[in-house]
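Supplementary Methods. Inverse-folding protocol.

Structures were first reduced to a C-alpha cell string of length 288. This string, shown here, constituted the complete conditioning input.
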C-alpha cells in the first residue's frame, strides 16, 4: 500500500522513520565512544604498559643494588656470600627480562624513540653488570673486604638509575597527556552526541507537528466545516481534497452526501411548490 493511499501508513512511516533516525544517531555516538574506550585500551597496552614495565625494572634494579650491599656486608661468610651473590644475579636477570620486554613492546608499537632509549638502558645495565662482577672479584681477592668492593663499584649505578628515572618520568607524563586528550575527545563526543540528539529530536517534533497539522488536523477541520454547512442547508459550496487516503475517501463521501442532500432538498422543494399550486387552485375553485 502506497503512502498516499493510507493515512495509517503515513503516520507509522513517520514514527518508524523518526525512531530509526534517532537510533542511528545514538549508534553513531556509541561508536565514537567505543573508539574512546579502544584508545584507553591502547593507552593501557601502550604508554602506560611501558611505564609499568619501566617502574618494575626500576624497583628490581634498586633491589639489585640493595642486594649488592648485602653481598659486601655479609660476604665474609662463604655461605652468605654465595647466597646474596645468587640473589644479586637473580635480580640482574629480572631487570634484564623486564627491559627486554619493554624493548619488544616498543618495537612492536614501532616506537623508535622509546626503543632507542631502552637499548641504551640495556647496554648501560650490561656494562653495569660487568663492573659489578669486576668489583666482586676484587672484593673476594681482598678477603671479602667491603670497603674494597664498595670502592670498586662506587657510582657505577648512577647512570642506569638516572636513565630509568628519566624514562619513568617521561612515560608517566606522556601517559597523563594522552589520557587527558582521550578524556577530552570522549567528553566532546558525548556533548556533541547529546546536542545532535536533542536537535534532531526537536526537528522531528516540529516536522511531526507540521505534518499532523497539515495532513490531518487542517483537512479534518475543513470536513467539519463542510458538514456543518450541509447541516444548515448550504449545498452550494463543494469540498475538494486532492488526497487518496482515508481523509480523501471521507471527503468524497461528504461530497456524495452533499449531492444527495441537494437532490433531496430540490425534490422536496419541487413537491412543496406543487402542493402550494394545488392548494391555490382548490381555493380558487371553492371561491367560485
Amino acid at each position: 500500500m502506497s503512502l498516499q493511499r493510507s493515512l495509517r501508513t503515513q503516520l507509522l512511516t513517520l514514527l518508524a522513520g523518526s525512531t530509526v533516525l534517532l537510533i542511528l544517531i545514538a549508534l553513531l555516538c556509541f561508536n565514537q565512544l567505543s573508539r574512546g574506550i579502544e584508545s584507553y585500551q591502547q593507552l593501557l597496552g601502550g604508554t602506560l604498559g611501558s611505564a609499568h614495565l619501566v617502574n618494575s625494572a626500576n624497583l628490581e634494579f634498586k633491589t639489585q643494588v640493595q642486594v649488592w650491599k648485602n653481598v659486601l656486608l655479609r660476604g665474609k661468610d662463604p655461605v652468605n656470600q654465595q647466597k646474596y651473590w645468587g640473589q644479586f644475579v637473580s635480580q640482574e636477570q629480572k631487570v634484564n627480562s623486564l627491559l627486554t620486554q619493554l624493548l619488544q613492546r616498543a618495537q612492536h608499537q614501532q616506537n623508535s624513540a622509546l626503543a632507542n632509549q631502552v637499548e641504551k638502558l640495556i647496554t648501560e645495565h650490561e656494562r653495569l653488570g660487568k663492573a659489578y662482577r669486576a668489583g666482586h672479584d676484587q672484593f673476594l681477592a681482598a678477603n671479602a673486604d667491603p670497603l674494597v668492593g664498595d670502592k670498586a663499584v662506587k657510582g657505577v649505578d648512577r647512570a642506569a638509575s638516572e636513565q630509568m628515572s628519566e624514562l619513568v618520568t617521561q612515560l608517566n607524563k606522556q601517559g597523563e597527556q594522552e589520557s587527558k586528550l582521550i578524556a577530552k575527545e570522549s567528553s566532546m563526543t558525548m556533548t556533541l552526541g547529546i546536542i545532535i540528539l536533542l536537535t534532531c529530536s526537536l526537528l522531528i517534533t516540529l516536522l511531526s507537528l507540521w505534518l499532523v497539522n497539515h495532513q490531518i488536523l487542517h483537512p479534518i477541520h475543513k470536513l467539519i466545516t463542510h458538514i456543518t454547512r450541509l447541516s444548515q442547508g448550504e449545498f452550494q459550496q463543494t469540498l475538494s481534497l486532492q488526497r487518496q487516503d482515508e481523509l480523501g475517501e471521507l471527503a468524497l463521501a461528504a461530497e456524495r452526501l452533499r449531492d444527495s442532500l441537494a437532490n433531496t432538498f430540490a425534490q422536496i422543494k419541487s413537491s412543496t411548490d406543487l402542493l402550494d399550486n394545488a392548494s391555490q387552485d382548490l381555493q380558487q375553485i371553492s371561491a367560485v
